[in-house]
Specification:
The complex is a heterodimer of chains A (about 280) and B (about 325).
Chain A (H helix, E strand, L loop, with lengths): L4 H30 L2 H4 L14 H7 L4 H32 L5 H12 L7 H10 L6 H26 L2 H9 L4 H30 L2 H6 L8 H11 L4 H35 L2
Helix pairs in contact in A: 1-12, 3-12, 4-7, 4-9, 5-7, 7-9, 7-12, 8-9, 9-12, 11-12
Chain B lengths: L1 H5 L4 H9 L14 H36 L6 H5 L9 H8 L1 H34 L2 H16 L2 H11 L6 H8 L14 H28 L4 H9 L4 H29 L3 H7 L10 H11 L3 H33 L1
Helix pairs in contact in B: 2-3, 3-15, 5-15, 6-10, 6-12, 7-10, 8-10, 8-13, 10-12, 10-13, 11-12, 12-15, 14-15
The chains are: A mainly alpha (about 280), B mainly alpha (about 325).
Subcellular location (chain A): Cell membrane
Keywords (chain A): Cell membrane, Membrane, Transmembrane, Transmembrane helix, Transport
GO cellular component, one term (chain A): plasma membrane
Chain lengths: ~280, ~325
């Protein structure tokens, strides 16, 4: 097809403009975090900082309870993901490999559970947790995060299990494996990439969760990082350098995971979340 | 709570199957092996049990609890003294007759519609652009998209607060430099419309990548022959889009619109974190309204009633598509 130079130019020019638009806030977060204060509080923005300082990062890291909260976030997130993976493995195997009455019903249940409006259930959850005298504890957070990511984990793992040829399992069983053995020796190793991708998505969801921790864990030492970050700017009186350093520290693990996951993200999300 | 942790041990079920001996054909039932057959018949249910149990306890129970709370008069006093005061449908009557609730509902619906339309239109355009670009430019744009997609909502909200900061914020500086001098020290979170503008920009910025990247992935699955056939029939760019690309993408677009409606409507993090529903509670959407009424003003029963009504509104908004999906899934599963 013939295309004039202009027709070839505009998609590329648009792409560059869009790239700047999408990447700029992230760029601005990192550069602000690294700029000296004089470059942040300046009448004209310093677009390309020349000097870098770690002063803001130090301030964020030395903020009260920072390391406790990092520990809390990691504990809650990792436990939630591991628990939901264990439970989802069992369920996804049944849903992908077995025929039984009510299978559709169970699948629909998990699809609907995936859309559960957790944001508006926080009041009820607060009452339940309060009645159990577990406010400011990490256990309820862990359990609820586990259930939040569970339906997605089950449905995604199910499609990964279904993608593994049944013959592999059957031939292992012909060779004398029992079904659980066939699962552990044959399917499980092949499932590793799927487990990896699924658990990383669970990690991202749990790491970012905000409304529930906002209502359940008010104690400064029982919070997680999202709550800490949302209050940082107020607590530090418009210290944008430190606030952006805090935001960077919180975002870096997720940005790295995402870049690492990008290819799987497309396949995984379309096959797992959208399509079911 | 303990139930959930105890039940996740699949030990007995798995061990039981193993003890069955010879490789069990899943649907074969040998005569005289009734015990084993029953066990194998039960296997899928036992495997599903932990998942169903935790979902029932940790999702079902809060849903029921929310329903119960919505019929209670539960304020600070009752909360502290652990009193249960039933007050029938008072919470609902009060909510449904209050002007505030309907105003917030209308606001939520408009907010959702505006965001979803922007996300879908712009996301589709960016996705189609991705399909048109050369591989280097596509990679460049994809990196930008993944960055905004990946940003944790709370971190993104903080960054937008900084971008739109009254003093030293980049946005105000740019607007001033472009000649709109009254914006030099504009307070974006000081007004209803301007706060919603920032929230919308934030949500749209974060949501476009999901639509664009998945739409691009979907276009790569369109068979090239379809375009060739269209070209043979003399179709131009627009015609081949209308007769090949769009019909092919329609199910995807429908499904994504549905998901975006749910996500935007129940968006809490960004709306709350940017200005806690202010100024003057003018940017509260339904989930934030329920939170501020219930937790902030300590009318927990009222908050629960608003939460339940929020779910009803969400179901109403998505019912059309939900019906299609359920019917479709019924056929496919």
């Amino acid at each position: 097809m013939k295309r004039s130079p202009l027709a070839r130019l505009w998609p590329n020019a648009t792409a560059v403009v869009l790239f700047i638009g999408f990447a700029f806030p992230v760029y601005w977060m990192f550069t602000t975090a690294l700029k000296p204060n004089s470059d942040i509080i300046s009448e004209d923005p310093v677009w390309f900082p020349t000097g870098a300082t770690l002063e803001h990062f130090q301030k964020a890291v030395n903020a009260e309870n920072f390391w406790t909260l990092v520990g809390n976030s990691l504990t809650v997130t990792l436990s939630a993901v591991v628990l939901s993976l264990l439970i989802a493995l069992l369920a996804s195997f049944a849903l992908a490999r077995m025929r039984f009455k009510g299978r559709r019903g169970f699948l629909l249940t998990f699809m609907i559970a995936q859309m559960a409006p957790w944001e508006v259930l926080v009041i009820a959850i607060y009452m339940l947790v309060r009645d159990g005298d577990m406010l400011n504890s990490l256990l309820p957070l862990t359990l609820f995060y586990m259930v939040m990511v569970l339906p997605f984990t089950i449905l995604t793992l199910r499609s990964y299990v279904a993608a593994i040829p049944k013959e592999l399992e059957e031939s292992a069983m012909v060779d004398g494996c029992t079904r659980p053995q066939a699962f552990i020796r044959v399917i499980f190793p092949l499932l590793a990439p799927g487990l990896m991708a699924t658990s990383l998505f669970g990690f991202i969801t749990a790491w970012n969760e905000f409304p529930l921790v906002l209502i359940l864990n008010k104690d400064p030492e029982a919070q997680t990082l999202p709550l800490w970050l949302s209050r940082f700017q107020t607590a530090f009186g418009d210290d944008w350098g430190a606030t952006m350093a805090a935001a960077s520290l919180f975002a870096i693990p997720i940005l790295l995971l995402f870049l690492f996951l990008q290819r799987k993200a497309v396949g995984g999300l379309t096959s797992g979340a959208v399509k079911g | 709570m303990a139930v959930a942790t105890e039940r996740q041990d699949p030990g007995p079920a798995a061990a039981g199957v193993r003890r069955g001996g010879a490789p069990p054909g899943p649907r074969r039932r040998g005569p005289g092996a009734h015990g084993r057959a029953r066990l194998i018949g039960a296997a899928p249910y036992l495997l599903l049990l932990p998942a169903l149990a935790v979902t029932a306890v940790l999702l079902g129970w809060p849903l029921i609890k929310n329903g119960l709370l919505s019929f209670q008069n539960l304020n600070m006093r009752q909360l502290i003294q652990h009193l249960t005061e039933w007050n029938g449908v008072d919470n609902y009557r009060e909510t449904l007759t209050s002007e505030d609730f309907w105003r917030v509902t209308l606001r939520s619906v408009i907010f959702t519609a505006a965001n979803v339309v922007l996300i879908m239109v712009l996301g589709t355009l960016v996705g189609l652009l991705l399909a048109r670009l050369g591989s280097k430019m596509r990679l460049l744009l994809s990196v930008g998209l993944v960055l905004s997609w990946a940003m944790p909502p709370i971190a993104a909200t903080t960054v937008f607060q900084w971008l739109f900061a009254t003093r030293f914020g980049v946005v105000n500086w740019v607007l001033d430099a472009l000649g709109w001098h009254s914006m030099a020290h504009y307070n974006w979170t000081g007004g209803q419309f301007s706060t919603f503008f920032v929230i919308t920009l934030l949500i749209v910025w974060q949501s476009i990548p999901f639509v664009a990247i998945n739409l691009y992935a979907a276009t790569t699955t369109i068979p090239g022959e379809l375009y060739e056939a269209a070209a043979l029939d003399g179709a131009g760019t627009w015609k081949s889009f209308a007769s090949v690309t769009f019909p092919f993408l329609k199910p995807f677009l429908l499904a994504t619109t549905f998901l975006e409606v749910i996500w935007v409507f129940k968006a809490f993090t960004q709306v709350f974190a940017i200005n806690e529903g202010g100024p003057e509670r003018l940017t509260e959407t339904l989930p934030v309204y329920a939170f501020v009424e219930g937790v902030g003003n300590q009318h927990y029963g009222m908050g629960a009633a608003i939460s339940l009504l929020t779910i009803v509104v969400l179901l109403a908004l998505t019912s059309y598509y939900l019906r299609i999906v359920l019917r479709q899934e019924e056929d496919e599963l």
